[in-house]
Amino acid sequence: MTTPVPGTVRPRTVADRPGARRRRRVEAAWAYGLLGPSLIGISLFLVLPILVVLWLSLNHWDLLSPMRFIGLANWIDILTDPTFGNSLAVTVVFVLMVIPVQTVLGLVIALLLSRGLRGSWFFRIVYVVPWVCAPLALGVVWKWIYAPFGGALNALLGTSTEWLTTPALALPAVAAVSIWSQVGYVALFFLAGLAAIPSQVLEAAAIDGASPWQIFWSIKLPLLLPTTFFVLVTGVISSFQAFDHIWALTPGGGPDHATDVIASRIYLEAFGGAFHLGRASAMAVVLFVLLVVVTVIQQRWFAKRVTYDLS
Amino acid sequence: MSHPLSRRTALLGAAATAALTAAGCSPAQQSSSASSSSAPVTVTVRLWDDQVQKAYDAGFAEFSKANPNITVKTTLVPWADYFTKLRTDAAAGNADDIFLINGSYIQPYVTGNLISEIGSDFADLRGGWSQAAIDQYTFSGKLYGVPQLTDGGIALYYNKDLLAAAGVTPADLASLTWAPGAGAGDTLLPLLKKLTKDANGKRADEAGFDGSKPAVWGYNASQDLQAIYYNFIGSNGGQFQDSTGKFVFASDQSAAAFQYIVDLINTHKVAPAASNTNANGDFARDQFLQGKIAIFQSGVYNLKNVADGAKFAWGIAPLPAGPAGPVSVVNTIVIAGNAKSKNPDAAKKVLRWLGSDGAAYIGKAGAALPAVTAQQQSFTDFWKAKNVDPTQFAKQGELKTLPAPSGANYGAAFSAWKPIFDEIFLGRTPVADGLAKAQEAANKAINS
Cβ separation of B448 and A160 shorter than 8 Å? Predict the structure, then answer.
């Protein structure tokens, strides 16, 4: 059996055309053979579920009775449903609360930790611990912290504020937990990004008389753009999908639907008693499209500004 | 996020089950032949009550001695997730062979042919079952489920020490009455005010009482369907659901009942704030067991918990009467056989046993009042030996009662009214407006 060597393409001549064709076919077979396992994985666990969800969104299904095709009824239903509109708005507000704070705070922590002060290894671990913990467990702990009667926060402040059941406070309270649990993860990536900046660039700037602020603003920050892009994209996606700790803190969408983010709504529609699998699937598709759009916008914006070449 | 995965699993499971059935080798058919031979089988039983689970485990050990080929395994799924998990598992074909189910959630399983009829194989046992239970679970002339637990009626558990400290005697609780707006004839509110105390030691009927710093609450007024609001509605002459299954809880009588409960919480502050109790159904019980609630209105389903958990002297008193007398919700719980069970013969054997001698274990352990009438004495005997008289629950059950809520889409209706009720109990939505909105949402959902 001949083993094709990639990159050894000779100018084609009439004489060896059939052989080249065979070689190309063999090469293609090899490529597909090697891609096969991951293609199967992607089709089974990514493409197929997406198709199933799309199909479900056109059906009425309550898990127990037979599935019934109803065309676009679920879509018309959810797109005219003010509760779903509210969920979209709540999710956007939640993302706007979480992402800027978590990114800036993560960067500040990374800058502080990168100065190599004594004991910073300890804080590196401390900041990452919440991210490592199960979000549901964190939600339960924070539920106790926020409890109006016997809760730690109210005991500390000497108040009896109902953090999680007052509509105006519930979303910021939930967002604060989200930021707290994610900031260590963001800081970790910024730390890695900072470590990758060649020291000679920073030294050259310092010799040229740049102030620490100028070094940060004109050198570190632009060189951190790839990290920022990664942190923002993953952060935005996970905030749009946030569910576990929100559900643990404010089950059922919170007071007056104040924390009824899209993921909560999808869960409620599907498993909250009504078992409207079709409607829930349509909502899941909306969330999917929304995330694709937001990610593409972010990608376009960064593509013009990011350099991955740090040499 | 785990739900897309669950949905997918459910779908694949359903597809696989359908394929197997189509191929003429459904799990049920396979197992008929399996269990007719004497190969050992395991029958699984799903339930939500840990006290009942302990009683069952003891009973099934005996059952297996008599039936060495059948091992029975119980699985506990907490109440909060019970009906969600049961439904997804039933759709995926993973439900247990036998499971506890209540009247509110059974209908979709009956219409979906997912639970087996309790038919002629059980004819010899039916005479020993509570007739109310048989009626509650008979659909189109067919019975679905073996009666297991009956709640009787609701009553008051009281903390004798807290009563004594407030100068209240158990006799004061014997004939309590409530009236809409705490008007003429209301003896409940003055008593609750006497029992409620703030952190400074001031009682709720004293000047300077600060309800925002509670130390002891008089009562567990809260959004508890079975223990609290259903009974207030009934004792004010109202209904929650009419005979056709339509929700009618926005009536004047029901609104006055809800208003009374909401006032106890938010105006008089003789009960914990709804922010504690709306999402945590066990908050009131836990506070009662910690000596922070004087009167805990609940059912026989909490008797074992109270007896095991209370570190103080306690007693049981009748439900307060309203303008229509003391009216309680009654409920029976059945154990149903999974129509898609892999071991239908063995499961039937277990069900027959639970519908006869097996029910004694629930009574013997004091876990719940068996709905198999012949076995109820074991329950009374258990508590008599502990100097507890549980007859109040049964007595209340024999008075005027309201049936437990039901409907094909009960779960959907419940999740439609729940967020609106949350706001009503928090005192943020006026009772009448909220009830009208909730009723409309619930009726829309039950028909969806």
Answer: no
